[in-house]
Amino acid sequence: EVQLVVSGGGLVQPGGSLRLSCSASGFTFTDHAMSWVRQAPGKGLEWVSSITWNGGGTYYAESMKGRFTISREYAKNLLYLQMNSLKSEDTGVYYCAKVTFQFGVRPWDYWGQGTQVNVSS
Prior knowledge:
By secondary structure, the chain is mostly beta strands. β4 and β5 form a beta hairpin. The protein is globular. It has strands spanning 3-7, 10-12, 18-25, 34-39, 45-51, 58-60, 68-73, 78-83, 92-99, 108-111, 115-119. It has no helices and eleven strands. 0% of the residues lie in helices and 50% in strands. Strands 2, 4, 5, 6, 9, 10 and 11 form a seven-stranded mixed sheet that branches. A four-stranded antiparallel sheet has the order 1-3-8-7, with no helix packed on it.
């Protein structure tokens, strides 16, 4: 059974930082690219970032470039999202998503339960 367990969300002031973690199990971690997606209040899913199966390629939505960093730790089957210079518009539920293929940012065939990120003063 595929499981993606996300942790690390919380309340942070504008300009602050958070690191999200996603623990993956139930599939071969190195066979898949991975993505982060988010959902702001009252809006649909928004793609945030992706990383290829071997970590050789990383991709970001335009508004996240220079502020967010995606990475993965193979020994522990962990996916990370380091978020710096957070803005109020980054508020939302963040999900870790398994990409069907080794490359690409989508499609997503599984995603975790999500973690709430609130950016507010």
